[in-house]
Write a structure and sequence with these properties.
Blueprint (H helix, E strand, L loop, with lengths): L5 E7 L3 H14 L4 E7 L4 H8 L4 E5 L6 H11 L4 E5 L3 E2 L4 H6 L7 E7 L14 H19 L3 E3 L7 E5 H7 L11 H11 L3 E9 L1 E2 L7 H22 L7 H12 L10
Parallel strand pairs: 1-2, 1-4, 2-3, 6-9
Antiparallel strand pairs: 4-8, 5-10, 7-9
Helix pairs in contact: 1-2
Length: about 270
């Protein structure tokens, strides 16, 4: 079997409608050789029936919710692609999304690449949950982004993990996601690790991927879990950076300063 160029890793809970929309757009709009790996953290019949509609995907069924980070690492371990794409179920991708993400790696030293979304400053007032409307919204906003930014990118201090690509060779050097983070902050933690290994983070300004924002958890669940993992993040990085107990803003300031210094680049290697 030929090796795929990209392994697309998706972790899901019991969100069948959202997951089906995401998978439909991935299958419809991905034209590079790829494999699709779905790690199902739910035993609910509804999500299992949703996944059964799709052919040629590898499903890893967990006995319970093991958390996002463990699920993502499960996907990495069974993947075969040269590049690894981590995609949330509450997303909708446009045509040629993957080709445009991979273009970022033409530049040496890029460790991860992601798109624009509502999270990164794209503003619109259209709100809908209908799958067909989400696809139209994503397509129109992406076309506008391409006209406005004309294939441009920017180097950023952090990327959001709802949709990003990391080369396998980079993950082999930096390691898997830190499984202390059950839900949330694993992407920010990994961005810091990438930067301290000397890699750049690139956001493709001319690519828009719709992100439902917290669509995979209730507001209450997300707030509780994110607060727990924020504490774990602060504890970890205060120890690494030799800081007294600090909030994430202080950690970001210190980490940004250190990772931009040639003297400290690669000190986590």
């Amino acid at each position: 079997m030929p090796r795929p160029l990209v392994s697309i890793v998706i972790a899901t809970l019991n969100t069948p409608r959202m997951t089906e929309t995401c998978l439909n757009t991935v299958v419809k709009n991905t034209s590079v050789p790829y494999e699709l790996i779905v790690i199902n953290n739910s035993c609910a019949r509804s999500i299992q029936e949703c996944l059964a509609k799709f052919k040629d995907i590898r499903i890893i069924q967990n006995p319970r919710n093991l958390g996002y980070t463990k699920a993502a690492n499960q996907g990495v371990r069974v993947s075969r692609g040269k590049y690894l794409c981590f995609l949330n179920t509450d997303t909708c991708v446009p045509p040629r999304w993957m080709e445009r993400l991979l273009e970022a790696f033409r530049n040496p030293g890029v460790g991860a690449a992601g798109p624009m979304s509502q999270d990164s400053g794209v503003q619109y007032t259209w709100s809908t949950s209908r799958p067909e409307d989400l696809e139209i919204l994503t397509l129109l906003t992406d076309e506008a982004s391409q006209r406005l930014y004309s294939n441009s990118s920017e180097i950023v201090p952090r990327l959001w993990g709802f949709c990003w690509v990391i080369p396998r060779s980079v993950m082999a050097q930096v390691g898997l996601f830190d499984e202390r983070f059950f839900f949330g902050w694993e992407d920010i933690d990994y961005c810091l690790r990438l930067r301290f290994h000397g890699f750049q983070l690139v956001r493709r300004k001319s690519l828009f991927v719709h992100h439902q924002r917290s669509g995979s958890a209730t507001v209450q669940q997300r707030s509780r879990l994110v607060l727990q993992t924020e504490r774990s993040f602060s504890k970890k990085w205060c120890s690494i950076l030799n800081l007294p107990p600090s909030d994430y803003r202080t950690i970001f300031r210190v980490a940004d300063h250190l990772s931009n210094s040639p003297e400290t680049a690669g000190f986590l290697a």
